[in-house]
Amino acid sequence: MVVRERQQFGFKILLAFILTLILFLLGIFVGFYLNQKKIETIENLEKDLLVSLQDIDTLYTQINKSELCKSKKYLDYINNELDKYAIKLTYLEESLGKNHEVVIRLKKPYNVLLIKHYLLMKEMEDCEKLVIILFFYSNRPEFIGLSENEGIILGHIREKYGVDKVKVYALDVDLGLRTVESIKEQYNITSYPSLIINDKTYGYLNKEELEKIVKELLTPNLS
Amino acid sequence: MKFELIFIYILVFFSLFNLSLMLIAILEKPFKRKPYKLNKNLPRVAIIVPAYNEEKNISSTLKNLLKLKYPKEKLEIIVVDDGSKDKTFEKAKKFEKYNVKVYRKPNGGKGSALNYGIKRTKAEFIATLDADSFPEKDSLLKMLPYFEDKKVMAVTPAMVVHKPRNFIERLQHAEYLFGIFLRKVFANINAIHVCPGPLSIYRRKFFEKHGLFDEKNLTEDMEMAMRIQKYGYKIETAVDSKVSTIAPKNFKGLLKQRERWYTGYIHNCIKHKQLFKIPQYEFLSLILIFAYLSIILTFGYLSYISFKNYQLIRDNFRALRLVGFDILGPEHINRIEIIEFLSHYFSNPFVLLGLFGLSATLLIFLIVKKETREEKVFLNTFFFIFFYSFFYSLFWLVVFFKYITRRKVKW
Q1: Radius of gyration for the alpha carbons in chain B, expressed in angstroms and rounded
Q2: Is the CB of A207 less than 8 angstroms away from the CB of B348?
Q3: What residues in B contact A13, CB-CB < 8 Å?
Q4: Residue-wise over B50-63: b if at least 16 C-beta within 10 A, else e?
Q5: Cβ contact, residue pair A9, B24, below 8 Å
Q6: Which residue of A has its CA nearest to B336?
Q7: Strand (E) positions, B17-123?
Q8: What is the mean pLDDT of residues A47-60?
Q9: B351 falls in which pLDDT band (50, 70, 90)?
Q10: Contact B161, B242 (CB under 8 A)
């Protein structure tokens, strides 16, 4: 019979197990906490943006057209903040899933803010040459492939021709927002992706087609 | 999505459990030196050097052995030439004037050479030493005190790679350093199951009671260690006794060595399968099981990483194709995107746990670096952390394939 020295096996295994469990739960807790923080940051960003946009909105009612153009810089700054919002949302989508309720809940105010920004930006069309693109996309299986492709192309064009000149507003049509519905009806949009570029409606555009339109719109009129 | 998440959770839990176990084991008996004295009561020790086609190394190995701090009348050095086809025997013969005994026998494998030597000595302790290994001067003096415990049947040293230069050697250098720590952990929970060939000291009594080396075994040193464990004895490790050994210099050599090691591991696990009885063998069983688990998890981890990278590359390629490979200059790199990416990346609990594991690994290397006084460890550690798992799983893949298709692995 083999006699081995006993080594408090059970006790040590239990100890190791408890230690592991503590570390593991700590990790999960930290993850949960950080996720919560992320959501909070997005919510705070949303509130700040809403205030900024209302601020400009009010400003518009008080000043005349010539002074209006000066507020473009402020709008660009808000645009920047909206981009931050979008990236944060994308990462949240990645970790929670595109159809998670928190994602949907945070996406709604984002889309509302986008439309608000869009309406304010439209006022700037007389100040300088701008390309204002409304991009309607859907995450439904039948539309998601082309929608994602269009998103990639739009992001590229926007970077290439300058974020202060090419304004892209990506609206999710599945959120059921009244404003989005009304714009859709107004421009008679039924399939996705669809683009409204400076009031003209287009379907899916590849890079060359989109680039051609953007270039034309940005060239100064000689007449 | 669900499946990969569950896999990651299991992987993280398993790794944390291993880490906790290591921590508990190492804290119980931290790195501590056993004091030793060079006195008259030292036991007789025989160092057996099995050599097969070692004409390149045998002279320097023997020269190094003659410098060992140990009373000459208590130390025997025995070279067993296992039917070499080169000048190993002639070169070893030149050392006969220094009292080195040199024998020559027909080729029969390392185990047979060791047994041949053991039969020709009466020494109380038998050290086995590969002909390409160089122990430090006081190795024997540092290792022998562990035999004070009558249950200890073998003592192993701290192995390091001799003068690592290229990538393959450096990778092994770090692997061996990590192995030193692991061996100490295993010693504390009595779970050492390999007595490395470069240098191991055995108590003669064990050979008398339970037989000599298994001459047909691919890894006779592992078989002996498992046998010692099987009969309820202990194996210790002397972390401060350093032995440097020449490691395979290229991928082919390393693959051949690992095929032998890992196949031997499978064979010996089957031969001594009672070691897997947890109630009797406790930590040893657990470690043997974990070894297999870690292979599976490493496979899974690497496939997961490869798949993720494949997806990443595919998505990037798709995006590039959509924009007609019109790559924008660095002035278009979006600062916000980078900041958001970093904050997203580092707030991932798995990344945090990964950083935690990385710092634990670095800490282990720092401890071992201090104990072994090895230098230039940093680069090798880097290689180890980033590339070791690829090599490890590749070798196991080859071994499993050959095992299943019953291809013979040669010495």
Answers
A1: 24
A2: no
A3: 21, 286
A4: bbbbbbebbbebbe
A5: no
A6: A84
A7: 45-51, 75-82, 100-105
A8: 88
A9: confident
A10: no
Chain A residues closer than 8 Å to B151 by CB: 5
Name the residue facing A27 among B318, B344, B353 (closest C-beta).
Answer: B353
What token pair was written down for B330?
A: 């660095």
Q: In what order do the strands lie in the sheet with A194-197?
A: A166-172, A131-137, A194-197, A200-202
B contacts of A91 (beta carbons < 8 Å) = 340-341, 344
Alpha-carbon span B70 to B182, nearest angstrom: 29
CA dist B185 and B195 (Å) reads 15
B388 DSSP β-pair partners = none
Nearest one of B200, B222, B236, B221 to B269, comparing CA atoms: B222
Count Cβ atoms below 10 Å from residue A24 Cβ, excluding itself: 17
* Chain B residues 337-356 with a CB less than 8 Å from chain A: 337, 340-341, 344, 347-350, 352-353, 356
Nearest to A124 by CA among A167, A85, A182: A167
Instruction: Say if the Cβ atoms of A159 and B323 lie within 8 Å.
Output: no
Would you say B91 and B11 are in contact if contact means Cβ atoms under 8 Å apart? no
Q: Do A34 and B349 touch (CB under 8 A)?
A: yes
**What are the DSSP E strand ranges found in B16-148?**
45-51, 75-82, 100-105, 125-128, 133-135
Count of beta carbons in the 10 Å neighbourhood of residue B410? 9
pLDDT over 90 (residue B227) = yes
Residue B14 in this model has a pLDDT that exceeds 90: yes
pLDDT attached to residue A1: 60
